[in-house]
Design a protein that fits this description.
The complex is a heterodimer of chains A (313) and B (288). Chain A is built from 10 helices and 15 strands. Chain A has 313 residues and is of the alpha/beta class. Chain A is elongated and about 75 Å long. Chain B has 288 residues and is an all-alpha fold. Chain B has one domain. The longest helix of chain B has 35 residues. The chains are: A alpha/beta (313), B mainly alpha (288). At the A-B interface, helix 2 of A face helix 1 and helix 5 of B.
C-alpha cells in the first residue's frame, strides 16, 4: 500500500479535525478525497505528510511512518492556497524547491523545462511570480510538486483558482500521472474534477469518513428516477422501503435505482397509495448525486465505523 | 540549511524595512557627521583633553543611537520570519520537503543573522569613521568592540525567531520592542545606581540602598535580554583602548566604569544558544 492509515485522528484543542480515518490507497490509484469546505480534507493530507502530528491512530506512507524525512523525497505536495516568495522568478522558485528536495543541479537543469512544459509555463519562467495570474501561480505550484518526479502526489484543491481551461489542463496532468503509474491523492470539493480523473473516492464530513471505495461502485450502472407527485407521506415511506438512496431536490423526489425493473414498482407505489403521478424521468447517476446523498444522510453527529464498503469487485 | 539561509538572506535584501532602515541610517550618519563637524571646528588645537573627551562622549552617544537602529531593524525585519511564512502558507510547502525543521530554523537564523551583522558592521564602522575623521580619535579596542557590536542583533534575533514560532508577526514585534525597551531602561538605571554608589564612596560613605536596588534592576534586565550590557562593553573597550582619561568620562550616561564581566559574555553566548534551541524545539513540535 502507498498510503495506509488506521484510526488516524487529529484533534485541535479537543475539537476533531479528523477522526478515526482508515484509508488504503494502493500504487497507481488516483484517489479522490471529497467533502464540503471544512470537512477535514486538508487536515488529513497535512497529517499524512507530517505537517500535523496525529493525536491518535497510525499511518504509513510509502511504507514508512508518517513524517519520515526520507519519504518526503518521493512525495510531491501542492498545499491549498499555495503561496510563493513573489519576488522570485518561476525558475528561481523551482530551483529553490529543487534544492530543498536535494536534487542535483544537473538533474534540475533537465527536469525544470519538463515540468514547466507539463504545466504550460514554458517561456514565462524568467518573469517574477508577482506578475503571474492566480492560475499561473497554481500551475507553478503543481510544477513544484512534480519536480522530484515523485511516486506519490498530494494535490490539495489544485483547481480552485483556475478557469475552465486551467482545470482541463490540470485534469490532463493528473491523467498523465496515472498513465505513468504515479499515485495521486486529490483533495477536492469540485466533484466534476474527481469524477473525470479518479478511480477511487472517499467522502468525508465533520472529520469522519462516511464512505469510500471504487468510483464505479458508486455511480456505475445506477440511474436516478425523478418523481413529481402529490399524495400522502406514506408514498415516500414506501419508496424508501425499496431504495435507501432517496433525496428531495426542488420538490422532486429523486430515487437511485440499480436497474430499470424498479420503475414500474415506483409508479405503482404512488398510484396504490392514492397519489397522482405528474412526472417520472430517469437520468444517469452522477458523483454529485452520490455526494449530495451521502452528505445529506450524514447528520452532524454521524458516527461511522471505517470500512471499505464499496470496494468489492 | 544553506538553501534556506541563502533564500532568507535574499529575502531580507528585498524587504522594505531594510531599505527604509538603510535610508534612515544614511540620514542619521549624515546628521552625526554634520553635528560633529561643527563641534570639532570650534575646539582649539591646544585643548587636547577637551577634544578627546568630546570625541569619546560623542562616539558612545553615536553608538547608542546606532545600536538602537540596529536593534529596531532586527526586531521589525525578523518579527515575522517564521510566523509570516506560516500565516501566508509558504511554510507548509517548505516543511513538506525532505528537510528538518531544525534546518529551516537554523537557515532562517543564518540568513537573517548574516544580513543584520553586515548592516551592524556598516553602522559601527561608519560611526567610528566619522568620529575619527572629525576628532582624529582612534581606539585600540576597535576590532573587539566591533565584534561585540555585531553580536547585538544576533542576541535579539535568537529571541525574535523563537517568538516567531508561536506568536503572530504583530504580537512578536510588540513583544520584542517592549523587551528591548526594558533592557535599555534597565541598563540606564544600572548606570545611575553605579554612579550613586561611586559618588557615595568618593564622599566616604557606603553605598545607599537605592543605588543597590537600581544596580540590581539593571542586572536583572541584562539577564532578561543581554543587549544593553553588550553595548556597555563595546563602549568600555573603545574608551579603554583610547587616550581618553577615565575620570573625564565618568558622568556620561553612555559609559560603563565597571564593564560587564566575562561571565556576562559567556551568559550572552549561552543565551543565544538557549533561544535557538527553544525556537527549534517549538517549531519542530508545532502543527503547521
Amino acid at each position: 500500500m502507498i498510503i495506509e492509515t488506521l484510526n488516524l485522528t487529529k484533534l485541535y484543542d479537543g475539537k476533531p479535525g479528523c477522526r478515526d480515518i482508515c484509508l488504503s490507497v494502493s500504487e497507481g490509484q488516483v484517489f479522490g478525497f471529497l467533502g464540503p469546505n471544512g470537512a477535514g480534507k486538508s487536515t488529513v493530507v497535512k497529517t499524512l505528510i507530517g505537517l500535523l502530528r496525529p493525536t491518535d491512530g497510525q499511518g504509513m506512507v510509502l511504507g514508512q511512518p508518517l513524517g519520515n524525512k526520507q519519504v518526503r523525497r518521493k512525495i510531491g505536495f501542492l498545499p491549498e492556497n499555495f503561496r510563493f516568495q513573489e519576488w522570485l522568478t518561476g525558475r528561481e522558485l523551482l530551483e529553490f524547491h529543487g534544492a530543498m528536495y536535494g536534487l542535483e543541479r544537473r538533474f534540475l537543469k533537465e527536469r525544470i523545462p519538463v515540468v514547466l512544459e507539463m504545466v504550460r509555463l514554458r517561456g514565462r519562467e524568467r518573469e517574477p511570480i508577482r506578475s503571474y495570474s492566480k492560475g499561473m501561480q497554481q500551475r507553478l505550484g503543481i510544477a513544484s510538486a512534480l519536480l522530484p518526479d515523485p511516486e506519490l502526489v498530494f494535490l490539495d484543491e489544485p483547481t480552485s483558482a483556475l478557469d475552465p481551461i486551467g482545470r482541463r489542463e490540470i485534469r490532463e496532468i493528473i491523467k498523465n500521472l496515472r498513465s505513468e503509474s504515479k499515485t495521486v491523492f486529490l483533495n477536492s470539493h469540485l466533484l466534476s474534477e474527481v469524477e473525470m480523473t479518479c478511480d477511487h473516492v472517499a467522502f468525508i464530513k465533520g472529520g469522519i469518513i462516511l464512505d469510500q471505495g471504487r468510483l464505479s461502485n458508486f455511480t456505475g450502472g445506477k440511474q436516478v428516477v425523478s418523481l413529481r407527485y402529490t399524495g400522502s407521506p406514506r408514498i415516500l415511506e414506501s419508496i424508501r422501503a425499496v431504495s435507501q438512496e432517496v433525496f428531495i431536490d426542488n420538490g422532486l423526489v429523486q430515487v437511485a435505482v440499480a436497474s430499470e425493473d424498479l420503475l414500474p414498482v415506483l409508479a405503482s407505489i404512488v398510484v396504490q397509495n392514492g397519489g397522482d403521478l405528474y412526472e417520472m424521468t430517469t437520468s444517469g447517476f452522477s458523483l454529485e448525486d452520490v455526494f449530495i446523498n451521502i452528505m445529506g444522510e450524514a447528520a452532524d453527529d454521524y458516527h461511522c465505523t471505517p470500512h471499505l464498503s464499496r470496494d468489492a469487485e | 540549511m544553506i538553501t534556506i539561509a541563502r533564500l532568507t538572506f535574499r529575502e531580507m535584501l528585498n524587504k522594505r524595512i531594510l531599505l527604509l532602515g538603510l535610508v534612515l541610517t544614511v540620514v542619521y550618519l549624515s546628521i552625526l557627521w554634520l553635528g560633529l563637524h561643527y563641534v570639532g571646528k570650534d575646539i582649539p588645537e591646544t585643548a587636547e583633553l577637551v577634544r578627546l573627551s568630546l570625541a569619546g562622549e560623542l562616539l558612545t552617544a553615536g553608538l547608542f543611537v546606532s545600536g538602537m537602529l540596529v536593534s529596531l531593524v532586527t526586531v521589525f525585519s525578523s518579527a515575522g520570519a517564521i510566523s509570516a511564512d506560516i500565516e501566508n502558507g509558504i511554510m507548509p510547502a517548505t516543511a513538506a520537503k525532505p528537510i528538518s525543521r531544525t534546518q529551516i530554523f537554523l537557515g532562517k537564523y543564518a540568513g537573517l543573522g548574516l544580513a543584520l551583522v553586515v548592516y551592524s558592521l556598516f553602522v559601527f564602522i561608519a560611526t567610528n569613521m566619522i568620529v575619527w575623521r572629525v576628532f582624529h580619535f582612534y581606539s585600540d579596542g576597535f576590532f573587539s568592540a566591533m565584534v561585540l557590536f555585531a553580536l547585538q542583533p544576533l542576541v535579539l534575533l535568537a529571541v525574535n525567531l523563537w517568538g516567531s514560532t508561536f506568536l503572530s508577526t504583530l504580537g512578536n514585534g510588540v513583544f520584542m520592542f517592549m523587551l528591548y525597551s526594558v533592557a535599555v531602561i534597565g541598563g540606564m538605571l544600572e548606570y545611575v545606581g553605579v554612579q550613586m554608589s561611586s559618588m557615595a564612596l568618593t564622599a566616604g560613605a557606603s553605598g545607599t540602598a537605592a543605588a543597590s536596588s537600581l544596580t540590581m534592576i539593571g542586572i536583572l534586565t541584562s539577564l532578561l535580554l543581554p543587549v544593553d550590557s553588550l553595548y556597555r562593553l563595546v563602549n568600555y573597550l573603545l574608551l579603554q583602548g583610547s587616550p581618553v582619561p577615565a575620570q573625564l568620562m565618568r558622568f556620561t550616561p553612555f559609559l560603563t566604569i565597571t564593564p560587564p564581566s566575562m561571565e556576562m559574555l559567556a551568559y550572552t553566548a549561552g543565551y543565544i544558544l538557549l533561544f535557538i534551541g527553544l525556537g527549534i524545539y517549538k517549531l519542530s513540535s508545532r502543527d503547521l
